[in-house]
Amino acid sequence: MTTNSTYIFSNSTKEVVQKEVKVPPDIFVNPNVATPLYQQIKEYCQRGIESGNFPVDSRLPSERQLAEKFEVSRMTVTKAFKELEREGWVYARSGKGTFVAPQTIIDQTLETLSSFTEDMAEQNLLVTSKILYQGVEPAGELFAKKLWIDAGSLIFVLERIRMANEELISLERTHIPYALCPDIDKNYDFSQESLYSVLREKYAFQLVIAQQTVEARRPTAEEMERLAMEQADPVLSFERTTFNANSQPVEFARSVYLGDRYKLRIKLKPTSSTVQGEGQN
Fold it and tell me: In CATH, what number does 2-100 get?
């Protein structure tokens, strides 16, 4: 067997550790079949990723190495890499190479009001959380307005890193009027427990409806640091205000999701005019 020198970048230490990745010697591309050469190279890389031969965050063989191995042009390998990157299999680091992307993709439909924990459970993913901040503080003008309370009223603030199957997914900061959940900061461990479950079961919250906005943007320097991002790739920024049965806001939350780990599905229904054939294309 031949080997290619591969590097794994650790999010925690940023150290580069050399690792040998074994490449089977009997892999080749066939120019005499209908499948384009770039597609065959793409499928070779996909098989390596799926089998674990190319681990997450490891560097793939270079374009030059693959071009020589398969006796094709570098342009052919470049096209294969671009397809892999477009489909989320790999990511490129300028001047460093092409690396295997994490394969945990969160697929959420915007139809129901649910928590992060509930969304992950639907996809059989293990949720873990790291608390960055938890406390009670006076509400500033912005959060007082969002929660329909007086400025200076106490709010419970919870900031967490959320993970699925031990992979970083999002940074989340939640604000709740403290009068609605007294002592919540003292009695619960939200690195282990679901906030929504506690609010429903212990404080009789009725979470009936929410208004949510989603925005694609570049991360701030602080967000990049907390989400262990190497470069300012786009993130999905969420703002959600949740209301109870009395139409009173009981939660205002901001979340930032890694753009390559999260997929949104939106269910669209026709208007009455569209159903009746009155709509225009």
Answer: 1.10.10.10
DSSP assignment of 113-145 equals: ---HHHHHHHTT--EEEEEEEEEEEE--HHHHH
DSSP assignment of 58-98 equals BBPPPHHHHHHHHT--HHHHHHHHHHHHHTTSEEEETTTEE
275: confidence class by pLDDT, cuts 50, 70, 90? low
Tokens 């940023």 correspond to 14
Q: How far is CA 154 from the centre of its chain?
A: 31
Residue in the structure block whose two tokens are 């674990």: 52
Average pLDDT score over residue span 84-112: 76
Could you report the per-residue pLDDT of 42-96, keeping only the tens digit for each? 999 998 888 888 887 889 999 999 998 888 999 999 999 999 988 778 888 888 8
Pinpoint the residues of the chain covered by CATH 1.10.10.10.
Answer: 2-100
DSSP-assigned letter for residue 266:
-
The CATH 3.40.1410.10 domain(s) of the chain lie at 106-265
Residues 77, 80, 85, 91, Cα dihedral to 10°: -30
pLDDT band at 112 (very low <50, low <70, confident <90, very high): low
> Which superfamily does 106-265 belong to?
Chorismate lyase-like (3.40.1410.10)
Q: What is the DSSP string of 224-269?
A: HHHTT-SS---EEEEEEEEE-TTS-EEEEEEEEEETTTEEEE----
